[in-house]
Amino acid sequence: MYDVLPLPRIVMAVAEARGRDVIEMTMKMGQAAVEAQMKGVYARFLTNLTPGRFGQRFDQVINHFYDFAPLTAAAEGPHGARIVRKGMPLCIAEWWAVVTIPFVKVPLEANGAREVAVEWRPTPAGIQQATPMGDVVCDVKWAAAEVPASPGPRYR
């Protein structure tokens, strides 16, 4: 976790120096990272993150990138899931949620999900070693992929 703590402040400083919106820049950094990883070492994990397997696999996938707090993912019906990361320093909660959204959306959309939406909220859970801690809950929803119409029988 200690390697992650400086990242939100570093991104804020870079965004300020470049005159860019920090949330937009963080989201684009996450998008670029997941797109590169889908062609790299973690391609197999990310390309197999289908809507049907999302609730079962997301925790394994995201823990390869960010493993600093316990995470669970569970299906919430056929078109949704809930992700919960517990015991996270609240000073990195927003950064983590924003940079993680592309790791949710890009693989799901690549596997046919449409209109992927992620809503996240931090929940304070006390103070540990003078650091405000909490949990982050992300609710993920998507529409099913359209099934192409069958062209019918083929005759030669």
Strand content: 25-35%
The largest sheet has its strands arranged as: 1-2-4-3
CATH H level: which superfamily? H-NOX domain
H/E order of the elements?
A: HHHHEEHEE
Helix content: 40-55%
* Shape-level CATH architecture: Alpha-Beta Complex
Give the class-level CATH name.
Alpha Beta
What do the pLDDT scores average to? 86
Quaternary arrangement of the chains shown?
single chain
Q: Helical element count?
A: 5
Task: Provide structural commentary.
Helix 2 (22-37) crosses helix 5. It is globular, with a radius of gyration of 18 Å. A four-stranded antiparallel β-sheet has the order 1-2-4-3. It has a single domain (7-143), classed as H-NOX domain (Alpha-Beta Complex). It is an alpha+beta fold and 156 residues long. The protein is built from five helices and four strands; from the N terminus they run H-H-H-H-E-E-H-E-E.
Q: Could you list some keywords that capture this structure?
A:
156 residues, alpha+beta, H-NOX domain, 5 helices
Layout: helices, strands, pairs:
Layout: H1 7-18, H2 22-37, H3 43-47, H4 54-62, E1 71-75, E2 80-89, H5 90-110, E3 114-128, E4 131-143
Antiparallel strand pairs: 1-2, 2-4, 3-4
Helix pairs in contact: 2-5
Q: Gist?
A:
With 156 residues, this protein is α+β, with helices and mostly antiparallel strands.
